[in-house]
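Entry 14. Two folds queued back to back today. First construct below, sequence then structure tokens.
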Amino acid sequence: AGGGQPGAGGAPAGSEEEVGRLLAMAEVPEEELNPFQVLGAEATASDAELKKAYRRLAVLVHPDKNHHPRAEAAFKVLRAAWDMVSSPERRKEYETKRVAESELTRSMSEFLSRLQEDLTEAMNTMMCSKCQGKHK
């Protein structure tokens, strides 16, 4: 398949590649799934652009249209991603969650960095039992 020719079993061109791409994301836990990546769209895409991307992919990987043995699994990944951003409310919920997770990750990283600095300083100012001196 590919090269503009129909895929195996008369599936639309490009469908094998899309099934493979979506199946690679099937291993990602749903809460970590990036719907924009799945849909092949920018995070700034409009609702209409997301819908168009979803429909284009749905035609390529839907089990009724694509006879790939794992087309159904690929379609489930696509559907899960679409469900996350299919309405303005769901999309806002997803984006709010991602911002909060990003902020938590940043805060945790800063905390651990400061902790490491503090521990290093503490270790360097402790009394050395071998030479009875301080190492700083």
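Second construct, same run, same settings:
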Amino acid sequence: MKNTIGAVLLAAASFVALSSCTKDPLKDMTEDESRIYITNHDSTANFNSYKTYSIVDSVSLIDNNRFAGKEATSWDVAVIAAVQNALNARGFVKVDRTQSPNLGINISRIYSTTTSVVDLYDYWGGYGGYYDPYYWGYSGYGYYFPSTYGVYQSTEGALSIDVLDLKDASSSGNTIKGVWNGLVRGAGIFRSSNVQSQVQALFDQSPYLKTSR
């Protein structure tokens, strides 16, 4: 499958580590500025050939590449509604999954946790001479610290929306082809107040994702 990838980069994603005291050049960025919007679609897909869709009633949880269940929190319900409204505005008609929809819509919350080690001495650049050596009776002495290592974990979250071709699924063997994916990464993506703007940004980036009734 040939894919085309479009990405709107509002700013580089923040690197989360020791957030209360690190040298973070992006710490003054707003949540909006930190978010990245990525869309990917099958360039051979004729979206005008799809007329109907069905959407999940809960959101999948993916934790470190493993399925961890499904939820329908207020945030999840808001995302489902926002995606549904966006598809309706593009000409698609929602039907029940028992009515042979042309497209299936999956929504996932993705969490990825990484563990890293940092040399704290190198990170802070050394404290030699920062403090008054005379207080301790060692005039002319400097300070040094041996290497000290810290271990920290950071968790990144993402919103993923998948559009699947169900119309041609029966003729494609045992696989269902994805024809569009939208991914949002960055700070504040799981705030309910950001749901509408995030979904809209993905669809604004994908003008081809539409059909005629």
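Quick look at the second one. The longest strand covers residues 103-119. Helices lie at 31-34, 74-89, 120-124, 195-204.
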